Fold this protein.
Amino acid sequence: VSTAPVRPSRAIDQGLRERARRVIPNGMYGHLNTSRFADDYPQFLARGEGARVWDVDGREFIDLMCTFGPILLGHAHPEVDAAAAATAARGDVLNCPGPEMVELAEVLVQEVEHADWAMFAKNGSDVTNLSVVVARAHTRRRKVLMARGSYHGIGAWALPPESPGTTIEDHANTVFFGYNDLDSVEAAVLDAGEDDVAAVVCTPHRHDVFIDQEPVDPAFARGVREICDRLGAMLIIDDVRCGARIDLRGGWAAVGVKPDLSAWSKSLANGYPLAGLLGTAPLGEAAAAVTATGSFWYAAAPMAAALTTIRLLKEGDGIGRMRASGIRLQEGLRAQAQAHDMAVRVTGPPQMPLMLFADDPEFARSLAWSGACAAHGVYLHPVHNWFLGTAHDEATIDEVLERTDAAFDVVRERFGTG
Ligand SMILES: Cc1ncc(COP(=O)(O)O)c(C=O)c1O
């Protein structure tokens, strides 16, 4: 296998960027703007299949981002697509939900340990926002405690206070603590007022952008549960990024802690737009009472896709296979870095790995390495965790590692060892 990057024409991508600059804010807004990365990243992709994506100029990449999470079984999965298409052919968005909604709620209540009921929406933010609304309706309290640096979507309550377009009032009921720091949760409780805490929101592990991922300390998880019980506050797990990829039973099931509410989306339906809010029986009344709706929230085809996705994930031990591939990748990267005499930190659950360079305060090495990966046909992110799916088999991981090895060469040439 040649390690020399293939450089076909980028003309179509460049042409689209130029047109986009005229009609799309900043040419592309938000985190999807790839101009912050190395030049070799495409801005526009044309198609995906299995573990690979192709850009509009026909360049092929092994995809380690899986659409930032939604793709769990590989792009364009034939069985999932067929299930969605069959339902869509009968009617996707109708006046009322289809029978798939009941079936999917039954499956999720069966699989997710704490869940007695399910509500559905489209995006992760829909259900993180809804989780807070339900917790407030149930407790009749205002304050929500969340970890500083955690991402819970674009609801103003969850954004950093300095976010453009948000007001002081938007943030008035959010109090921050440090992930895995129980004392800071107690301090946040005092700050919020013991009798005004509606909920504590946590991700299953710490997966903030720009930093190493960190597993939850079981004592922290148990401690947060105890604090919520003491206060009568709701524990919410934001499983939008991890759910189904790491543990279908729910984010803190492995450490024996059950939340009152959990928010799911991303990988539920292998790319079809779907989100779920799951809750325990006592919160059912509040969930029924709040205003929760959206024009497309009841669409049946994504629910059919989810039923097939979850079935296939379970039948094929998808989580176990993703884990094995992730371990192969993580160990391979560590060995490569060592062979190149470079210090890196490879963190995260194997299904959601991230590699950062040890001495890289401005992320220059990460940018160079990820850019070289793109040039060699591996699509990953410089500072956000990556996502594996069941389409990443051993052979694909080995192909990835051949290409990342070449990327280490590029970084060593530019920055030296260390
Ligand atoms: C942990 C977490 N919560 C919530 C969200 C928001 O989900 P969405 O972008 O689908 O609204 C995300 C998205 O990345 C997420 O990772």
